[in-house]
Amino acid sequence: MNELDNLIGDLYEYDDELTAKQRKIIIAAIEAFAEKGYASTSTSEIAKNAGVAEGTIFRHYKTKKDLLISIVGPMVQKFIAPFVIRDMEKVLNQDHESIDDFLRAMLKNRIAFVSKNKLLFKILIQEIPFQPELKELFKKHIGMKVIEKATLIIQHYQEKGQLVDLPPATIIRGIASSIFGFIVTRNLLLPELDWDDEVEMERTIQFILHGIKK
Amino acid sequence: MNELDNLIGDLYEYDDELTAKQRKIIIAAIEAFAEKGYASTSTSEIAKNAGVAEGTIFRHYKTKKDLLISIVGPMVQKFIAPFVIRDMEKVLNQDHESIDDFLRAMLKNRIAFVSKNKLLFKILIQEIPFQPELKELFKKHIGMKVIEKATLIIQHYQEKGQLVDLPPATIIRGIASSIFGFIVTRNLLLPELDWDDEVEMERTIQFILHGIKK
Amino acid sequence: MNELDNLIGDLYEYDDELTAKQRKIIIAAIEAFAEKGYASTSTSEIAKNAGVAEGTIFRHYKTKKDLLISIVGPMVQKFIAPFVIRDMEKVLNQDHESIDDFLRAMLKNRIAFVSKNKLLFKILIQEIPFQPELKELFKKHIGMKVIEKATLIIQHYQEKGQLVDLPPATIIRGIASSIFGFIVTRNLLLPELDWDDEVEMERTIQFILHGIKK
Amino acid sequence: MNELDNLIGDLYEYDDELTAKQRKIIIAAIEAFAEKGYASTSTSEIAKNAGVAEGTIFRHYKTKKDLLISIVGPMVQKFIAPFVIRDMEKVLNQDHESIDDFLRAMLKNRIAFVSKNKLLFKILIQEIPFQPELKELFKKHIGMKVIEKATLIIQHYQEKGQLVDLPPATIIRGIASSIFGFIVTRNLLLPELDWDDEVEMERTIQFILHGIKK
DNA sequence: GATGAATGAGAGTTCATTCAT
DNA sequence: TATGAATGAACTCTCATTCAT
After folding, report:
1. Cα–Cα–Cα angle for A64, A76, B125, nearest 5°?
2. What is the pLDDT of residue C111?
3. Closest alpha carbon to C1' of E18, residue
């Protein structure tokens, strides 16, 4: 399973953090959680699909929930961290003259990441409402930081006269909803459709820009 | 619990379709499903919260999944049917001269409905990915019908020169994503925030209109 | 269901002992018990097939076991009583000159009765091992009485020089086994076979006579 | 429980096919099924009597019915196979000059087997009518094979002029009924009686021989 | 480190029985 | 008398977790 192999690479910096069995467990868990949901997946099923003994799972992960967190946790950080740290810094440092460029760069980046990690993304948004630990993680990594930075960026472009004068929070919600909507439609709702990603992404950007540009 | 009482009224036309115990079961089930998810809620818990014997649940609903469907099924129809049948007909009959009016009317309507039925809505979007029966219901009631009608409406306004010349599917996705994003943020992600619904809704409409108007 | 209507007539002397609902309950119970066994038949199933409310069953029969006993109990008496009381008396009063005649009469009689009441017979032999009450009934009505009488009859014919000089108990077991074997094969094991009852019965009698006649 | 230890030995060729816990489960199940019937025995009861956790039963046997089949299935084969394969071959190969010898050998053999496995035999005949799987097994292992072979043997002795000229099917039914009657009386109906097995068996053979010999 | 048999709490479901109507 | 909603105990079966090997 190609997606899953890449994915592991994305989530764990150093391959040797994981034994071969751990990799197999994580891959089996991701597939099962995405397909049936965390609560409806049994550890015995994961063990069987991973080709390991049930006990082996619990040798590496104290509980079933531990396994979930260890899968989804890194995702939260990987998904968010670059957004916050890399891209945003750049913007504020005037790497992108126009908001078009910035938005396009960011959107492409995020969409590519989610497309590569569809299953993980599905698990993440399915389980966040029910796992306080995940919610906490999410808040910690996005919560204030991202919103603060995004607010700064928006104000930055508003001052440049490029953005409509709605409150930043509204704009953030507008942009985030559109991106989220695109990603969800693309990957979860209608994955079987024959999308031309480049074109559709460009259209989504146009839609957003129409919505927020002055 | 006020929301839940309204809700039952919304879902079941005639109060006497339900016995007192059935009402209590459904209310308890909705609360529990929304809070912990369908799979993580036990029927014994529902029974306890409803103040009935566990057997009573199974007298009215053959299985636990039956209970879920009988809760969420009507929601699908109630949420969608009016959208398709009433609003859309009106538009096509020129009830709304400008797209602004139409969009505003529809958005208000949908948002009000979801706000009144937050819990049900949460259950619906959480469980749809895992319950083929729900997916089927959803497709049957939204699937083609809504998209066809929406396409007609968009073409209608495009011909009037009021709408940007993107493909209808893109516009639909844009609008739907924004509405969905608004509803989810408003009700699920940040319900604790102090929203001024009127204002925020108007802003969302502005955002959408910006995005799709010529 | 023809068999069952006759049957009720056989079991209950006076039709007006039973209300219409009781008849329907008993018929439904017999069918279900015979098909799936007493323990695997639910009262709700009986009620449904009988077209009455579940409560109605318990109005007439205090418990499920009561229902069983009230069905099978009369059978025990009806099946046995004539054997003991009528036939045997006749034999001892020299109604049948030869043992051939006696055996033939008795066998025909028993076989006809069981054939008419196949389902009841099946229930009886299936449940006797597990229902002490039935065992008790059986012992009371067959137990000593039948065996004593049969012993007398056998000794009677042995004295006449018509019967082999095995111990009566052995002869009784031989005869009973053969009859039981015939009935079970005919009605339970191979009911779908195309039997010529007259012929097969005569052969069975020949077999028994061969076995016991001097 | 001595009978049960032998029995396990009979059913499973190699002791190490079964773990200690499995043995305990099977023994407890046999006792309970024989005493109260399959349907009226709960798995929790079996677990308690076996001194294992209830879950352990389901680790070894997927369902309760699986447990039943795995107990009774081997019995069907063990009980029947030798009858068909060993004994009958011998007869046809003239090992037994007279039918007396053959019948005596066979009867002794079967009776001994059933006596040793009374409980299993009881379960088998109690559950066959309600378990299609068992019926199938039975048919497959006895069904045609035994009856065909038996027919051959009977014709063999009829040609030798030793047997009465009734149709083989009638003779088979006669013999089988007598044996079945003997076994059932001996082991199930009147087990508490003080039987002299040798003597009674000889008498049963005499009875059968009387019935079928020319 | 890996195994998988064993556990026992708890899951969903069934059922004989009761009782207000 | 007949009903059928309600009950709660008991049922079969699943599961995350433990631990001796």
Report:
1. 75
2. 77
3. C55
